């Protein structure tokens, strides 16, 4: 079968690899029908050392179950399923609390030794705890929106939930990528009446307005901070949803949060050190939260609106490629020619 491998920065290839097989009784095999390239994939695309490759890529996918291990009880061949970007058993103490990304037996698709979702098929460990059956056919027009439940919609929603967004909070979203735009949509779903989107790409911020942003701030850094402060009467916002992961985005978030407010990070941090002491978060009673989104916890919450068509998170996809087009899809996203690339194996 074909799969996507990254050899080093800028070097992504579609190659033939062995077909997956059931290795453990809790496994399922899934023929992938819809996948995509994630903004977080661009970090290794810009920096991976040759010694770290080749790596199988992709952590978001829909597919059809083709085989199951002897201990899989809730799935059978023919089921249409969505997979979160982390696999989990669904039964450990952390899974029972909804924190599936901390499953003591789980892990992530992008880890060494795992099979990525930018491929024709995949072995899914801990299938009963990981996969969710979907009540529509694989060729449904809803597929792009259903795919966002795997990562970007669930991640945006996680940022908003952990940030404590309600109808009483003024929200700012830092970043106009797919996660940032769906953080806007999530804040709207949770009742926020004022949502400031900080982004400078007009095609993206236009979609952000359609998702619920009431204000757009294109300025960055100190100018961006000053603009948000101006919009909020000098006070800042109650909740910042940081969907980038770069240190300047963190600094910008701190600059616009009000005393007593919350910064909720879901952009994968590309730094280890940032101000959290007395002169920053402590003095203003500012809360810092967020982390890898346990998107499995939100599938049942978000699925009904997607099925009903009352939300269309799949609008973040603006280009579709087959597996052979994945390398150019990476280039297009890195060059900001595409927001998010859908992959149809």
TrEMBL record:
Which domain of life does the protein's organism represent? Bacteria
* Record's protein name: Threonine dehydrogenase and related Zn-dependent dehydrogenases
Is this entry keyworded Transport? no
Signal sequence span is none
Required cofactors, per record? Zn(2+)
- Domain (Enoyl reductase (ER)) spans 10-343
Q: Which UniProt keywords apply?
A: Metal-binding, Zinc
Keyword Metal-binding carried by entry: yes
The record's Gene3D superfamilies line, in alphabetical order, gives: Medium-chain alcohol dehydrogenases, catalytic domain, NAD(P)-binding Rossmann-like Domain
- Pfam families registered for this protein in UniProt: ADH_N (PF08240), ADH_zinc_N (PF00107)
Q: Molecular function terms in GO for this entry?
A: metal ion binding; oxidoreductase activity
**Where is the chain membrane-spanning?**
none
Q: Which InterPro entries match?
A: ADH-like_C, ADH-like_N, ER, GroES-like_sf, NAD(P)-bd_dom_sf
